[in-house]
Amino acid sequence: MKHKIAISIDSHLLEKIDSLSKTSNRSHVIESLLIKTLKQKKINNALVLAGGRGAKLRPITYEIPKPIIPVKGKPVLKWQSDILRKSGINNIFVAVSTDVEKIKKEVGNNLCFIEEKTPNGTGGAILLAKKHLQNEDFLVSYCDTVYNKYPNLNNMFDFHIEQKPVATMLLMPTKNKMQGIAKLSGNKITEFNEKPKNINFGLISAGFFIFSPEIFDFLKSNCSMENDVFPLLASKGKLAGYVSDGEFFDIGTYQGYENAIKNWDGY
35 and 62 share a domain? Predict the structure, then answer.
């Protein structure tokens, strides 16, 4: 069933529509454009890496698993899942290694938990989720990272589709952190070093990524994205960098946790 509607359109836009309507009427062209726009690809699946044991936050993490450490009155994993849902992602998978039932009790059962029986590294954790994620592009984020300006998923995904890399990494400028430094040429990351020497500024990985299914060709059990996979992708020209001027907070250390409690405004 179709309905008639009345709309106002800028004259310049109307001229463009008319230029497309030589073999059909305006209504048909507008309808076609709307269908094409509304059917644009979007990210449907996200994986939150929450398998770390929180060694840098002990003795806190002896009692409270790192994914449910409270920030601004809410478990950090709950912050992550809530903002992903608000961004339109409903299929949320969480890679965990310990205390699964305790974590579920705090954040609810509306997430799909993938349990690591033994530590597999960040790359191994993604590989464990292959059967859920291998059919389309997907998002990965670290559970212990929050942002003062959450990445615009639509813009970042459009960038990823346009660049056609295996992986797109969110980059932010920093002068305070000595790890995850990326060397950028145009939109491609040409070099990635997780723990460089004699560098104290530059663009840094902000723990937020979009992957194509091809990423699984580069993964194996017990591998590190930061030390093994990203440097390899960079050397092959398959790693893109999406730059944001925002700030992120890493709650995986005492200093980062205190900074987030004091300075992060929440989502």
Answer: no
- What is the Cα–Cα distance from 50 to 126, expressed in whole angstroms? 11
Tell me which residue of 213, 208, 225, 51 sits closest to 132, measured CA to CA.
213
* Domain with 69 in it: 47-263
DSSP class per residue in 212-258: -GGGGGG--TT--IIIIIHHHHHHTT-EEEEE----EEETTSHHHHH
Beta strands per DSSP E along 99-154: 112-115, 138-142, 145-147
Give pTM, 2 decimals. 0.82
237 inside domain = yes
CA 217 – CA 233 distance, rounded (Å): 11
Q: Both 29 and 149 in a single domain? A: no
Do 79 and 174 share a domain, yes or no? yes
In a 10 Å sphere around its CB, with 0-12 CB exposed, 13-18 middle and 19+ buried, how is residue 142 labelled? Answer: buried
**Total of domains in the chain:** 2
**pLDDT tens figures, 129-172:** 999 998 999 999 999 999 998 999 999 999 999 999 999 999 99
Asked if 262 and 159 count as a contact pair (C-beta separation under 8 A), the reply is no
Contact 163, 240 (CB under 8 A): yes
Model confidence over 106-136: pLDDT tens digits? 887 789 999 888 878 999 999 999 999 989 9
